[in-house]
Structure formats: C-alpha cells, structure tokens
Amino acid sequence: MRKYIILITIVVFLFSCSNDFLELTPVSDASSENFFQSASDFEVAVNGIYSAYQEQGYYGDFWRYMMEFRSDNIDDVNSGRNAGQDANINKFREVPSNTNVEAVWVAMYQVIARANTVLTRIENVDMDEALKRKLIA
User: Fold this and answer.
1) Do 43 and 135 form a contact (C-beta atoms < 8 A)?
2) CA pair distance 43, 51, nearest whole angstrom
3) pLDDT for 24-53, tens place per residue?
4) Is 1.25.40.390 the CATH number for 37-136?
5) Is-contact 59 111, C-beta < 8 A?
6) Are 48 and 110 in contact (CB under 8 A)?
C-alpha cells in the first residue's frame, strides 16, 4: 500500500507543474518585444542607433586606427606599444587576437542590429506617416 501512495505522490508532482509556471517574464525589464508602443519610443531607439557611433569601437577611437593607420596619414612602427596591435593594423596584419579590430566589428554590428530592430518593429505601430518615413530613413 505504501508503494502506491509513493507512486501516486510522484505522479502528482511530475504532472502538477507546467512550463508556463517556470517561464516568467520580468515586468520591470524592457525588451525589444514590449518596448515599442509609440512614436516617441521609436525616436528614442533611433537616437540609440546614432549614439552607438560614439562608442570607443566606432568613431570614438578605434575606427581611426582602422582607417588612418592603413593610409599615409599615421604611421605606427612601435610594435611594443599596445602589444603591437596598432602596428599590426598599420602593416595590414589583422590577427584574431587584435582587440581593436574586434571592437570595431562589434560596434558596427551593434549599429546594424539596432537599426534592424527599429525597422522590423516600426510597421506595427500606429503613428504619423511622415514621422514614420523620417524614422525609417
């Protein structure tokens, strides 16, 4: 008899919980799924796209390394500084361990991801068409 009680208890515990109980959405966190509700939300998001250009990996610092070191404008021959990362860019030797190159790529794709998020969400929100075209452009 005790075996049946234990078996019934185990079966009840196995089937009593469902996945929706375990997958709760935090109400305090904004995500791209629940953030875009109005035109002002899209204006904030577009400003966030342009804000990413100021990051160190983009125009803030490392972009200069990627563009200017490869031209005749800057010449970095000090391979001892910055573990030789700048000198390697200057000589067109990009290695996977170069954090400057990685920072530029991460910053570029962050801008692309933010823009794609705005473009995929903007059609579902009711707003002034002129403003919508401006934000898409």
Assistant:
1) yes
2) 12
3) 666 666 666 667 788 888 898 899 898 888
4) yes
5) no
6) no
* Distance between CA atoms of residues 41 and 7, nearest Å: 54
Span between the terminal Cα atoms of the chain, in Å: 73
Q: Which residue has the tokens 């794609």?
A: 116
Report the sign of the C-alpha dihedral through residues 124, 125, 128, 131, in that order. Answer: negative
User: Could you give the angle at which helices 39-51 and 99-121 cross, rounded to 10 degrees?
Assistant: 160
Token pair, residue 21, equals 């109980």
Has residue 124 got a pLDDT over 70?
A: yes
Q: What is the pTM of this model?
A: 0.64
Q: Which residues contact residue 89 at a Cβ distance below 8 angstroms, ignoring those fewer than 6 apart?
A: 65, 66, 69, 70, 76, 98, 100, 101
Stretch 92-111: mean pLDDT: 83
**Structural domain spans, the chain:** 37-136
